[in-house]
Design brief:
about 300 residues, alpha+beta, Alpha-Beta Plaits, binds guanosine-5'-triphosphate, binds magnesium ion
């Protein structure tokens, strides 16, 4: 670009390169989805079409960005994870976030009619998503981040399932149901969030509505995990609850090495799973997610 007297304006741009050798999580979240879901009459508490559409858009994001190792989605949010070795956009935060947000939104709109054929999108009710990038310095903390989102999914889903049963099947008003679920609020430690302990809600579901929460669909209870499928491995010595805290940094990979890995990742199928990602088993069977080294393609 030719020099001009105006070029000094570039000096106002703030650097936003994320720390090297750290996991990068870009979490996006639907803006105003409370209203959005009401307008398009999403089923309460869970709309399968809406979740499938979120997953379908996220699969396309994973396909377009082979640097992504794993993604996790629940409700109107999705977390996309880049490996510590990732050098995409020189690890510039805004570039990573805006690319993911716009690619995801583009596909969400593009695929909307596939999942909601009889309710076309109409302004002003158009979907939009915010996004942020957070870095995590170890495998252990990255896994804790993923566990945090999945625990949140469980807590919210149990609450929402019970709440909407009480309202839709039990004929209670929203306020009454909310009050009843709040009864045990005081004096409970914070992990019994939203008032009642899990057991109380399980009991309400079972005794009043004959629902065994364990039999609810996994997509609602566990959320959605997206990753590239390579050959599963036998877990070596599965030690319950133990977290792999091994240091991550492997130094910078050369550009040609990165390109080779990208090609291998592109060949793998992106799968959508609804499984536990808190215990070791998931990670031990799929070592390529944390190592960043593609495994063998399934036969
Ligand atoms: P901001 O993210 O702050 O803009 O607000 P929000 O309205 O999007 O709320 P938030 O992200 O905290 O929560 C997502 C909201 O989306 C939920 O509270 C629900 O109202 C709605 N939602 C998400 N998934 C479903 C679904 O499957 N069915 C129904 N009925 N609603 C859903
Ligand atoms: Mg939202």
């Amino acid at each position: 670009m030719a020099n001009s007297k105006y070029e000094y304006v570039k000096d106002f741009e703030q650097p936003d390169v994320l720390l090297p050798s750290t996991w990068i999580v870009v979490r996006i979240d639907g803006k105003g989805f409370h209203k959005f879901s009401d307008h398009y009459q999403f089923t309460k508490p869970n709309d399968r079409r809406a979740l499938d559409l979120m997953n379908a858009a996220a699969v396309e994001v994973m396909k377009e960005l082979p640097d992504l190792c794993i993604a996790y989605g629940v409700s109107d949010e999705f977390s996309f994870v880049f490996h510590p070795n990732c050098q995409l956009f020189e690890r510039r935060s805004a570039k990573l976030v805006t690319t993911i947000v716009s690619t995801f939104t583009g596909y969400y709109i593009h695929k909307w009619s596939e999942y909601f054929p009889s309710t076309p999108l109409q302004p002003p009710y158009l979907p939009s998503f915010d996004g942020r990038a957070v870095i995590y310095p170890s495998n252990g903390i990255l896994r804790d981040y993923m566990s945090w989102r999945q625990v949140d999914c469980h807590i919210n889903n149990l609450y929402n399932t019970t709440f909407w049963m009480m309202v839709l099947k039990g004929g209670m008003s929203n306020t009454d149901a909310e009050q009843e679920l709040k009864i045990f609020d005081e004096g409970h430690p914070t992990y019994f969030t939203q008032g009642t302990v899990s057991g109380d809600k399980n009991e309400i579901l079972f005794k009043r509505f004959g629902i065994n929460y364990n039999n609810e669909e996994d997509i609602y209870k566990k959320g959605s995990v997206l990753y590239r499928q390579f050959e599963l491995q036998e877990p070596e010595s599965a030690q319950e609850g133990e977290v792999d805290n091994s240091a991550v940094p492997e130094g910078k990979q050369s550009r040609s090495q990165q390109e080779r890995l990208r090609k291998l990742r592109r060949k793998a199928q992106v799968v959508v799973d609804h499984v536990d990602i808190i215990k070791n088993d998931f990670w031990e069977r799929r070592p390529w997610i944390l190592s960043g080294k593609p495994g063998k393609l399934p036969a």
